[in-house]
Write a structure and sequence with these properties.
about 200 residues; mainly alpha; Growth Hormone, Chain: A; 7 helices
Length: about 200
């Protein structure tokens, strides 16, 4: 049960919904015009859809744990790159911008993060939650894990405006740390279910 809750919480603590909920304001906060910020929000959604479809084809071939580990490593690198780029934010008030190089790097980092999430945790968590619980507690366990996920989602989404006012780069460093922490969590505690419930695995 605790593994299921951990999976649900880590899925949100990496900050994926910050990208989706605050994408327009995020890009505008670093100097991208409203039309451009809308376009970047659209492209992240397309990347998320494509990555999810690819993950659905890979999850049985590669395995749940390896795919999650690849995603965690990719997210950590992408978030770290974005955090570095956002640290170069210049200006105050409505006159805020990133230097051209860092602006490009921030876009690549953010899109890379969405891609690695969609390729892994966006799909793997739900597959694992559907497979890892014994039948006798599956419904209750899934409900508890989903509740933990929504609570974590709320905490991350509500805290982001305050964190970004304090330090946009600092917020992404925090998400990077959670992505890194998800690696030992997967290695030490997450089972490789391979389509079977733990109860059936003996």
């Amino acid at each position: 049960m605790w593994i299921g809750i951990g999976l649900s919480v880590f899925q949100q603590l990496v900050g994926i919904n910050v990208i989706f909920y605050y994408s327009n304001s995020l890009w505008q906060s670093v100097g991208v015009d409203p039309e451009g910020s809308f376009f970047y929000s659209f492209t992240t959604s397309i990347i998320n859809i494509v990555g999810t479809v690819v993950a659905m084809t890979l999850v049985d071939r590669i395995g749940r744990k390896p795919l999650a580990l690849i995603g965690s490593a990719g997210m950590a690198v992408s978030l770290g790159v974005a955090a570095w780029a956002f640290s170069f934010k210049e200006g105050t008030g409505d006159d805020i911008r990133l230097p051209d190089t860092q602006g490009t790097v921030a876009l690549i980092g953010a899109h890379g993060f969405v891609l690695f999430f969609a390729l892994s945790w966006g799909v793997v968590v739900w597959v694992l939650l559907g497979e890892m619980f014994p039948n006798r507690i599956r419904a209750a366990a899934l409900g508890l894990a989903a509740s933990a996920q929504w609570i974590a989602n709320w905490a991350i989404s509500q805290s982001f405006p305050t964190l970004s006012d304090w330090s946009l780069s600092g917020a992404y460093v925090m998400y990077t740390c959670f992505a890194l922490l998800s690696i030992p969590f997967i290695l030490l505690w997450v089972p490789e279910t391979k389509g079977k419930a733990l109860e059936e695995m003996g």
